[in-house]
């Protein structure tokens, strides 16, 4: 079997305050997203969200169901978002192929029984970053390129957070049940993402950091605004953000990250913003 998964239980802010570094990482960090010829998944009990990666090198990989779903196939009651962060590859959905290049996205709706990932070149394998959430309706499978994304430019070099937000799989671009995904690219010289920080009590989120240069890292900040914690992260790692937690980071260089979220609503701007000076 090429699909491997782990479960993470949801914990609250009171328990999180008591965790040391190792326990904080064990609960929230997804340390290995990609492994050769395998699909790696983490099933979190925050909104039943799944995050992980598929890296087909020498063979195609099929997205098989996992025990936690109690379902005959993975997407029986789920939707799936995919963003390729590697070489060119193909996602075949119930017999129909979708070519995905670097930083291109694909939404796969509920009810599709067979999803297969493959790479065009084993020497430059595709790396399909995956997010999945429970779904109540079957929306069409659709590819979205950066040219088709909703683009927002925020921040400035003076505050070290000049960034481009590419809204790829969001309700202003395609129809989804609750899954929303996009990609934020920091300009050279900028290191802060998502500042000022915020929480959104009606949605959880997962960040996936990539394009971090060798020897560099990102310090990801989480926790309640008045009691923050940090997790040091390296290239191609992800971190789970509960609804009660801020989610922001600062790198030792510029980088890119993919955000994915699910919950009560599809309103991207439904945020409880906190002033920088209020963070502790």
TrEMBL record:
Is this entry keyworded ATP-binding?
no
Cite the SUPFAM superfamilies for this sequence: RmlC-like cupins
Which EC class, in a word?
isomerase
Its EC number(s): 5.3.1.17
Q: How is the cofactor bound?
A: Binds 1 zinc ion per subunit.
* Binding positions (Zn(2+)): 198, 200, 205, 247
Which UniProt keywords are listed? Isomerase, Metal-binding, Zinc
Task: Spell out the Pfam families in the cross-references.
Answer: KduI
Q: One biological-process term from Gene Ontology?
A: D-galacturonate catabolic process
Q: Which reaction does it catalyse?
A: 5-dehydro-4-deoxy-D-glucuronate = 3-deoxy-D-glycero-2,5-hexodiulosonate
Q: Does the keyword Protein biosynthesis apply?
A: no
**Which superkingdom heads the taxonomic lineage of this protein's source?**
Bacteria
InterPro entries tied to this protein: KduI (IPR007045), KduI/IolB_isomerase (IPR021120), KduI_N (IPR027449), RmlC-like_jellyroll (IPR014710), RmlC_Cupin_sf (IPR011051)
User: What's a single GO MF annotation on this record?
Assistant: 4-deoxy-L-threo-5-hexosulose-uronate ketol-isomerase activity
Recorded hits in Gene3D superfamilies, A to Z, give: Jelly Rolls, pectin degrading enzyme 5-keto 4- deoxyuronate isomerase, domain 1
Which pathway does the database say it acts in?
Glycan metabolism; pectin degradation; 2-dehydro-3-deoxy-D-gluconate from pectin: step 4/5
* Cofactor(s) the protein requires to work: Zn(2+)
| Biological role stated in the UniProt entry | Catalyzes the isomerization of 5-dehydro-4-deoxy-D-glucuronate to 3-deoxy-D-glycero-2,5-hexodiulosonate.
Q: Which family does it belong to?
A: Belongs to the KduI family.
Q: Write the protein's name.
A: 4-deoxy-L-threo-5-hexosulose-uronate ketol-isomerase
Q: Which gene is the coding source of this polypeptide chain?
A: kduI
């Amino acid at each position: 079997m090429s699909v491997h998964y782990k479960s993470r239980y949801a914990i609250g802010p009171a328990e999180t305050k008591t965790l040391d570094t190792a326990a904080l990482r064990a609960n929230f960090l997804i340390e290995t997203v990609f492994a050769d010829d395998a699909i790696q998944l983490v099933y979190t009990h925050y909104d039943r969200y799944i995050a992980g990666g598929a890296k087909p090198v020498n063979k195609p990989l099929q997205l098989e169901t996992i025990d936690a779903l109690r379902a005959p196939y993975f997407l029986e009651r789920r939707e799936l978002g995919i963003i390729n962060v590697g070489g060119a590859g193909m996602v075949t959905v119930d017999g129909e192929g979708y070519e995905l290049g670097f930083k291109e996205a694909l939404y796969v709706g509920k009810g599709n029984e067979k999803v297969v990932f493959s790479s065009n070149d084993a020497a430059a394998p595709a790396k399909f970053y995956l997010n999945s959430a429970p779904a109540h309706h079957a929306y069409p499978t659709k590819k979205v390129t950066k040219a088709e994304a909703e683009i927002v430019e925020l921040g400035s070099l003076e505050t070290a957070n000049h960034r481009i937000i590419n809204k790829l799989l969001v309700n202003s671009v395609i129809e989804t049940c609750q899954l929303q995904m996009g990609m934020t690219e920091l300009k050279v010289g900028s290191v802060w993402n998502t500042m000022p920080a915020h929480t959104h009590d009606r949605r959880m989120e997962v960040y996936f950091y990539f394009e971090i240069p060798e020897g560099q890292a990102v310090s990801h900040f989480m926790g309640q605004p008045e009691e923050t914690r940090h997790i040091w992260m390296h290239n191609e790692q992800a971190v789970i953000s509960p609804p009660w937690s801020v989610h922001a980071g600062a790198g030792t260089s510029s980088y890119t990250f993919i955000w994915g979220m699910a919950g009560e609503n599809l309103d991207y701007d439904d945020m409880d913003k906190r002033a920088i000076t209020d963070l502790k």
